[in-house]
Amino acid sequence: MTNPIFLNDERVQRAIQLVWHEAALLDRKDYPAWEDLFADDGHYIVPVDPETEDFESSLNMIYDDKRMRRLRVDRMMQGYAPSAVAAATTVRVINRFEVLAVSDEEVTLRSAQVLTAYKRHNTDTLGADLTHRIQLGEGDNPDLIVQKVARMINSEDAINAVGFLI
């Protein structure tokens, strides 16, 4: 069980602020700034199996390392890919933070995301449980995302192509 006192921890507050900042960047479609939030060895993962922890051996909708994030951002910004043409307008609400682990080097959080997307006169609402592992920077070094896992609540159903990042 999560200890609520962790939410008062400055390290946890920094991690939560980074998660909220990430959501704002995605809603503004500032994909290059979003990409810079990740550590060089960081991963962005959207698994199909909602229970898996073995992402390398499981089927994933997204399993991006630095190179694949760069390619995904390029596609989102080019305007020629279906995901970039008339990209959806989004609003994310992220809340229900649970602290899974805290050290002086890293914070792991679980949260709930409700994402509303509007595209071509259609509004969709998607829910996901997020897990972020945040590497805490020291001095002038920024806090960075080491791993983001977005477990879509409908991941085992057919998912339409989306013009945004989860």
Automatic annotation (TrEMBL):
Gene3D superfamilies: 3.10.450.50. The keyword Nucleus does not apply. It comes from the Bacteria. Keywords: Oxidoreductase. InterPro entries: NTF2-like_dom_sf, Rng_hydr_dOase-bsu. Transmembrane segments: none annotated. Pfam families: Ring_hydroxyl_B (PF00866). GO terms for molecular function: oxidoreductase activity. The keyword Oxidoreductase applies. GO terms for biological process: 3-phenylpropionate catabolic process. Belongs to the bacterial ring-hydroxylating dioxygenase beta subunit family. PANTHER family: 3-PHENYLPROPIONATE_CINNAMIC ACID DIOXYGENASE SUBUNIT BETA, BLR3401 PROTEIN. This is Aromatic-ring-hydroxylating dioxygenase subunit beta. It comes from Corynebacterium hylobatis. The lineage of its organism: Bacteria, Bacillati, Actinomycetota, Actinomycetes, Mycobacteriales.
